[in-house]
Specification:
homodimer; two-stranded antiparallel sheet; globular; TIM Barrel; alpha/beta
Amino acid sequence: MGFQAQWLETVRRKQSLLCVGIDAAEPGQRNEKALPSDLSKVEWTLGIIDQVAPYAAAIKLNRNYYKDISRSEMQRINARIHAHDMLSIDDSKLADIGETNDAGIYHAKAEGFDAITYAPFPGNTLQACAQADKHAIGLIVLVLMSNPEYRLMKEARIGEQPLYLHLAKQVAEGKAAGIVIGAPSDSNHITAHEIEEVAQLLPESLVLVPGIGAQGGELGPILAQFGDRTIANVGRAIIYHQDPAGEAKAYRDRIQALRIS
Amino acid sequence: MGFQAQWLETVRRKQSLLCVGIDAAEPGQRNEKALPSDLSKVEWTLGIIDQVAPYAAAIKLNRNYYKDISRSEMQRINARIHAHDMLSIDDSKLADIGETNDAGIYHAKAEGFDAITYAPFPGNTLQACAQADKHAIGLIVLVLMSNPEYRLMKEARIGEQPLYLHLAKQVAEGKAAGIVIGAPSDSNHITAHEIEEVAQLLPESLVLVPGIGAQGGELGPILAQFGDRTIANVGRAIIYHQDPAGEAKAYRDRIQALRIS
């Protein structure tokens, strides 16, 4: 079963579209929102997973915070995620070419991940899709990022069309498992029209949506287009809250209300 | 001393522009060019470093082949690189935004790297430059990749100019330590004109050049523009040769002949 089908099955069983994104900042790495000094990164991560598990369908590990983790440690984290009937996403934003991308995907699979994120900078999205298929892992391609600096990139012209439509067409052709669209808000540049354009090109694609937690983006316009194919990611607003379980439940319920409305 | 000055000093001391790129494929990861089954990845990597050290000024670790390596193991590898008076480049092709890029750079610094590669997909190159400065590590930004699929990307228009010039201008403004330009060859799309355009925008930038080993690209047109600011990367042609030291010496000598001609 591919990642798209795994996701839809998991959503059905858990009645949740929530994905919890974990960025395990070390004590001293930044001034706030870091893990406590009396727990190892792995133990802290396992604790968060246990707390949010009843309310989440997936966990996304923000890989740049886990560069120090060995394969056996990552396998232990992913085994815990799967034991709770959740899926596991390696948010590596892989951005290389050829066999190096294959290596990044190979490692993610060996570690037990179900999907990996991909930044299509060097242009070889079709090759990466084939590599992900070979390793039986879902590829999730960045298409519409919501950071202010991405505005120029998304509007860059490839021939007659903007880059984001070029990328969406490559995702359709390569049959990638999913894409990333940042949640639109009054303070960013993502528009309902862009979301609709991309959704129409990708009738089966999943969409991973960052930006609905602390950043205040709206899930509604994406949910309207993608329905249960929406992977609604919330990170720090849950994991660094004093009550991660309670916050995960609150987000799950809020998203569920939008989902069935 | 910043990474640019460190590089020029190392080149002067070692009389070499050679950087050896290491992609440690596990046995079973691919059909050929993989490490032997009787050595750990770390031991094999240390062995390669020892063999090429007399002839190289830098080592580039292809990070997607090292996702399983712990911080202490990476520190051991980087200590060995530095003990041989070489510089160490984390070829992660970091491609995220905000604090996640900061995390990737934080880890690279904690592991003992001198520089890290950056894929400017999400557009926030200036922010990444500032983050690299904060952590006292060199940022090397992808600008002109030589893979066939990059042709469309480099020619994408940002307003009136192609993406590669937009990126080169951001590198100049952010004062990144270096850029990546794939070595031009008859079979790829990199032109001498493009190299010259980029070089004129970046009179102090280093340039990391893949593609001159097995891929057969030419170093000459880049060396003509960047001189000793050229980091000439050779990977598999050296590390998977039966005599890595002999091949490293041969490449060093060939590059040296071009350098002083």
